[in-house]
Specification:
The chain is of the alpha/beta class. The chain folds into three domains: 181 residues, 3-Layer(aba) Sandwich (Rossmann fold), CATH 3.40.50; 71 residues, Helicase, Ruva Protein, domain 3 (Orthogonal Bundle); 193 residues, Methane Monooxygenase Hydroxylase, Chain G, domain 1. A six-stranded mixed beta sheet has the order 6-8-9-10-7-11, with helices on both faces. Helix 5 packs parallel to helix 7, helix 16 crosses helix 20 and helix 17 crosses helix 19. It is elongated, with a radius of gyration of 38 Å. The protein binds adenosine-5'-diphosphate and zinc ion. Adenosine-5'-diphosphate (ADP) binds next to helix 7, helix 12 and helix 14.
């Protein structure tokens, strides 16, 4: 139960109790014992009644000696009249609709609701591996692959090398004897390393699906609890469940949440995490290789893992799940568009080409967004323009249609973006410009969409310098064309400076030579030691700053010169942008008179 629900639950109990108490006091203030009619009549006759109160056919009486009785009276009127005549206080109330049902509703409904809720929440707590009642039950989710629609390698695309490596694991699960017979030990742990969304969970599920074994999963962050010891008991529970279901796969997502180096970080070690990790190691060492459980874990940060986890007998297999290349992206797109009716103009190859850097999850999201856009427009097929819109949305964030932008701001943005475009077009060795827009999205007022032609794994110095110049093109255009500079260039400047600094410090592309000059310890909170350890002197630090400055300023000068030489073109492009808000690659080339030179 989430805290919100728990609070609501408590309040509900309190309110229920209050209703109950109110009802109790509201009914009868006294208890009346039952009296048979004969005795009642004799009491009336002997004038022993002090007060009487009739409710429907029931008489509630108080005797002269202060006893209270309740009797059924068939003829209320006669008896009441008689009592009145004798000077008894009589109080008459119409018959209450005392049917069984109303009784239940009035007095028992709150109770019943309460009981129902009680059982309901009890049940919930138990099922959710609740903290309150069953301490330490792990949040294990188990998937037993249903042979009909289980996830297999067919659902995972573009990572053929990874699949090859995992084939072995499937073989272990299916046919362990083959390996144990000749004395080979079956590996227990496979660590999947890759950026978020590259399909690590999917791969693990597919391995389970291919081998036809259950898939038990838990996230590393589920282990990390507030209470010391809970994490460890969850680990125990997880492995117990796995042993019952062997052969099977245990999948631990985000293992870095538990598996970080022990005794590290601010404030010394985290006791709870350490215990959890120790328990994990104990369990992994504990089960025999013939138990046939394979632990798969995912992380995007293998560098922070405790070395003990990576030792033989634990996660000794490491499989890197890379970001997909063009071919991979095409395959993934094919998988995800299988069930979607595509228009004739849809060219998945083009989409794959223009989405470098996208991982599987991004592509799945892209396809889904495109389908949503098409559905919203009441189409029966998803067309290329839907994909284009979806891509803009995924890449740049949704359009902010409601922001009001002054004409002046729009004008400045148009020049700023035109500046980026023209510099990118005039310099060689830059990424092609796909479109430029001055529709605000996310934080940005305008966007120049530039995507690499193919996947780049390395960058040459010229490319980087030109990239900095392109980034500076926005600011340069503001200055040259309008004569005033704005905050709009803040992000460009940050990115340019970052590139320049890395050129100097990481890639050895400055007069300081090929040295690695970064401040160690970017991540203090995971870190091994807290103090920043610099690997260079004050003097070098000063030189680095000077080099970075030089590179960025040179880029800026290049941009300014290009803008000054191309005033007319920028003017034209900016005007077109103000008219249309979005200008595509082809039109950009027309405006800049570049149709023949460089096809983007
Ligand atoms: P990770 O665990 O690496 O963060 P997931 O396995 O959860 O990533 O991937 C999220 C989703 O992205 C998957 O459910 C799937 O729809 C899609 N996806 C990711 N990689 C691939 C791939 N290689 N082939 C097909 N779909 C993929
Ligand atoms: Zn810009």
């Amino acid at each position: 139960m989430s805290p919100v629900y728990r609070n609501a639950f408590l309040w509900m109990i309190i309110i229920m109790l209050m209703v109950l108490l109110f009802n109790m006091f509201n009914t009868k203030n006294y208890t009346y014992s039952n009296l048979d009619y004969t005795h009642f009549v004799s009491l009336v006759d002997s004038k022993q009644i002090k007060a009487a109160h009739f409710e429907g056919n029931y008489a509630y009486i108080t005797t002269t000696d202060n006893k209270r009785y309740k009797t059924y009276v068939p003829d209320v009127k006669t008896v009441a009249d008689k009592l009145v005549k004798e000077g008894v206080d009589v109080n008459l109330k119409p018959k209450e609709n005392n049917s069984l049902l109303t009784n239940i509703l009035i007095y028992w409904a709150p109770m019943l609701v309460f009981i129902f809720l009680w059982f309901y929440f009890m049940n919930q707590m138990n099922r959710g591996g609740g903290r309150a009642l069953s301490f330490g039950k792990s949040n294990v989710r188990m998937f037993i692959s249903d042979p009909k629609n289980r996830i297999t390698f067919k659902d995972v695309a573009g990572v053929d090398e990874v699949k090859d490596e995992l084939l072995e694991v499937i073989e272990f699960l299916k046919n362990p004897k083959k390996f144990t017979k000749i004395g080979a030990k079956i590996p227990k742990g496979v660590l999947l390393v890759g950026a978020p969304g590259t399909g690590k969970t999917l791969l693990a599920k597919a391995v389970a699906g291919e081998a036809g074994v259950p898939f038990l999963t838990i996230s590393g962050s589920d282990f990390v609890e507030m209470f010391v010891g809970v994490g460890a008991s969850r680990v125990r529970d997880l492995f117990n469940q796995a042993k019952k279901n062997a052969p099977c796969i245990i999948f631990i997502d985000e293992i870095d949440a538990v598996g970080r180096q022990r005794g590290a970080g601010i404030g010394g070690g985290n006791d709870e995490r350490e215990q959890t990790l120790n328990q994990l190691l104990v369990e992994m060492d504990g089960f025999q290789t013939d138990t046939n459980i394979i632990v798969m874990a995912a992380t995007n940060r293998p560098d922070v893992l405790d070395p003990a986890l990576l030792r033989p007998g634990r996660f000794d297999r490491r499989v890197v799940v890379p970001k997909p290349d063009v071919r991979g992206r095409l395959e993934i797109l094919k998988v995800h568009t299988k069930k979607i009716p595509l228009g004739e103009d849809v060219d998945l190859e083009v989409i794959a080409k223009t989405t470098s850097g996208f991982v599987g999850a991004d592509l799945a999201n892209l396809v889904n967004e495109a389908a949503l856009i098409a559905a919203r427009r009441n189409k029966t097929k998803v067309e290329m323009e839907d994909f284009d819109l979806a891509k803009d949305k995924v890449l740049l964030g949704p359009e902010r249609k409601n922001v009001i932008i002054s004409d002046r701001e729009k004008r400045i943005t148009a020049y700023h973006e035109s500046g980026h475009v023209v510099v990118a077009k005039m310099l060689p060795n830059t990424d092609p410009v796909h479109k430029v827009s001055i529709i605000p999205r996310g934080m940005a007022l305008g966007v120049t969409q530039q995507l690499p032609e193919d996947d780049k794994y390395t960058y040459d110095k010229e490319y980087l310098l030109n990239r900095i110049a392109v980034l500076m093109g926005g600011r340069a255009a503001e200055e040259v064309m309008i004569g005033s500079i704005t905050t709009g260039a803040g992000n460009d400047i940050e990115r340019a400076t970052d590139i320049a600094r890395r050129m100097v410090c990481e890639w050895g592309m400055s007069s300081l030579g090929p040295l690695h000059l970064s401040d160690e310890n970017k991540e203090v909170f995971l870190g091994r030691d807290i103090a920043v350890r610099r690997t260079f002197s004050e003097e070098t630090a000063r030189q680095i700053d000077a080099e970075v400055r030089k590179i960025v300023e040179e880029g800026y000068m290049i941009a300014v010169n290009i803008i000054k030489e191309n005033r007319e073109k920028i003017e034209k492009l900016a005007q077109r942008l103000l008219e249309k808000e979005v200008v595509e690659a082809k039109e950009i080339d027309e405006i800049l008179g570049l149709e023949d030179d460089r096809a983007a």
